[in-house]
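The protein record filed here.
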Amino acid sequence: MFANRIVRVQAEKARKFTDLDARFRSIRTDVALDQFHELYTQLHGLTSRLSSLEKERQHVASVIIDQEDAKRQAEVDRHTLQSSHQTLIQESTEHESTIRHSQQRIEMMDRSINESKQQVDDERSRLREMQNRENSLSGQREGASEQIAASGERLAEIDRTVETISSEHASFQQKVVELQDLLSAIQDTLEEETGKQSQLHAIAQSAKERLNSQIEQQVRTEKNKLTAEAEHTTLQKNRESTVALINEATRTAQQHEAVLKSHDSAAHSLGELAEELTNDLEIMRHQRASSGSRLHLLEEMQHAREGLTDAVKYVLDNPNQFPQVKGMLGDAIDANHADAHLVEIALGQNVQLLLVDSNEAVAQVESALDNVNGRIGLIPMDATNDNASIAHSPATALLTLIQIADYAKHAAAKILGRTAVVKNMQTAIEMQSKMPGWRFVTLDAELIEADGRMFVGKSTAGDQKGWLTRRIEINALTVEVSALDQQIDQRQTQLSELLDESEQAKQQQRDSAARVRDARNSVVEHEYQLQRIDDDTHRCTRQVHVLTEEHDELRQRILQSNTQHTNAENEATELTIKIELLTTNRSTERDNLDQAISHSETTTETLTAARVDLGQVGEKHEADRRELRHIDAALEESVRQRTLLQDQIARRLGQLEQFEASKQESQEEIDRCKVVAEQCRVELEAFNEKMRMADCVVETAGTILQNTREQGERLVRDFHALELSRREAEINRENLEDRTIEELELDVSNAYNTWRTTKGDSDRPAENREEMDEESNLLRIEIKKLGNVNLDAIEEESNLEERNVELAQQVIDIDSSVESLTSLINELEELSKTKFEETFNLIREHFAGPQGMFRKMFGGGSADIMMLPDEDGNVDLLEAGIEIKAKPPGKQPRVISQLSGGEQAMTAVALLLSIFKAKPSPFCVLDEVDAALDEANTHRFVRSLHHFLDNSHFIVITHHKRTMIECDKLYGVTMQERGVSKHVAVTVDDVGNKGEIAASVHTKPANVEQDNPEMSTKIVDELPIVETTTSEPANVE
């Protein structure tokens, strides 16, 4: 209904928009054509004026060109005269500069001549001084040569003495070295023999201590053997008593299991009854919530007076202002829910009629409505109407189907007194001819008015429809909600009583289950104790055998240690005699070495004194030679300086001659330049008069050219102004064309040609331009007020009914799909709960049962898996969490998070194997499951796997040697190089307790292949293969 109203409103807006837009386009077209005509006329006039100005501008431009040529020629002539004048000025300046330069050069030559003469005198004085110095240096050189010859002879004599003493000292040094080597060899031999003696003593002492230790170990072994035999006897007796206890505990467990089964049956029955009551209660609560929500919504709509006009709402909300109004007609009528819609169709807008006492009250109500927007309907309660009878007719009077309050009976009779209900429209049409003045309502909600108007079609929820239906539905829902609340309370009481009984049954069940678990734990504990006794018996037997072998082995080791001690003592005595002989030889050679060292020290002192004398004489000889070299160098430097001074004096004399000649040339150049400069001055006076005449000619030509240019500039300014006006007119015309194309989708240039031929100047709307602009602005505002207009709304209105039919069919399909999906979801949820409960109970039995994996892994104790309830104490099988409680042997029950790491690992392994037992598979891979287990727990873990070997194979990755021993076949891979795997053939004995492999094993496959390839293949296939690396324990599968 709301969508239909929107479409109708949009269609009405579209039609109004079409009319306004047509008028707006007509006005804007006339205005645009008139503006285009004005612009066209303006452009034509401006173009004519531009043509005339262009001709004048071209004439002035040709005159300016001729005058510029004349001025340019005058300037060229003046420039020629200026160039000649400048040349004369430059020549005169050059001659004057030459004169000044020559005078300066004469002055400079005079100064240079005086300086050169002074320098020649100074250099001749220095030459005489150098000659005197050379004579003195020659005398000093002769004295130094004589001293060098005397010191050379003394140096040769001391050198011969040093060589003689050095030879004697070298012979003594050689003898000392030989004696030191001999003494060192004797010392080394003595130390070696002493070391051997100490080693033999240590061997003898070690053999003696080992002998004592082996004797003590033999005594302990004998004692341990006797203890193991006594323990074996005790274990045999304990085994017999344990077997008797196991039989007794088994009988007790069977008795408690029978009692537990009876309690389980009782608890199951109570649980089914509780589940039925819970389902009924949930359905009732859901129905109560749905009805309550609907009731709340209807009460809110009724309280808000939904469906009534604003004026009626105001009157009913303000009874103090309208005391004459006694209520609304719709509130005074009541009917059953099935007939309510017929009454609403018959009443129509009259359902909102307000009841007043009489006609006089109408004026009072009308005066009170002055400040209220809207209209209301009033009907006096004293009005009467003759209720015509329709006896013996297929129609039923509507008044007989409703209940009316006493105060509104007359008013209702006035409205509905001649309204009847018939079966269908055909009957209504037939009855209208027989009962004129009557209104008829059909069971299909069709209406025929007394004047013949008919209203057919499906009823829709309008603004004034549903008031009576809502009120009647509210009353019915109120009764329904009250009844549902009573039923819910009854079901809740029954469920509480049943839950109490179920809780008592569950408590008895838990007590019986606890007794069964205790009995089962007792059986498992005794079985574990029996298994432990068997293991201890086997251990004692093996220990007795090992101790016997150890005792025999110790006897052989005692004999070997005794023999080793005797041999070491004999060899040590022989080495003592040899050491004493070497000590004597060492003392003799040490005396000889001391004498040789004394002679060597004496010759060393003599040689040192001779070398000191040799050094002093040599230093004096070297000083004399250095003095001679210094005198020779000074003499050579003096000769070189004297030669340079002689050359310098010769050059100075040559420069004096050159300076005199240059001075004479400069004086001649000054005389010549003075004559030429006087001639240039005369010619410059004649050129100055010619320059003044040329300046007057250029100035006259410039004045004429300037006047002509100013005239041309005025013409250009006028031309540019007209051109700018023409361009503005063209831009306005282009803007007008773009605007009309954008707004009106009209090509104004083409339309203008037609417009000019059809209309004259008298028909143009220029005198009405302001009125037309004002009207177009008003039309634009009206169009803008319409907002967004959907021009397709009319077509959408015709298609809306077809779409409503399709949507109704889709709603039916969706409701059907929702019902089927809801049914499927409920079915899947029930099936999932059943499957999960069956699997959970099976895993629980395998994990926590008498023969469960927990008891096998721990050798006793108990455990249980429970579903965690929610906040209300209910357990949802698909949403609840799972908690594991465990009681290892000898400890209190705890949740799994409170157990130790090893206990958590054992509990996890037990649960894992229980799940695998509930749903086995041909293969199972266990990756380092026993990593956190000790030796005893690893043994239980491995033994628990044997129960699955009939149907499954286990691939176990482990580092425990105990697990490797129990495996049927071992596969190992070593990765000595990253990314490269290598198989290594070993036996279990080659693997350490932590999974490491002996280093010697890595070369076995290569050696076997070299000797016998067939044997290598066989060994690799049959022997265990252990996976390991050089730095980490082995991973064994």
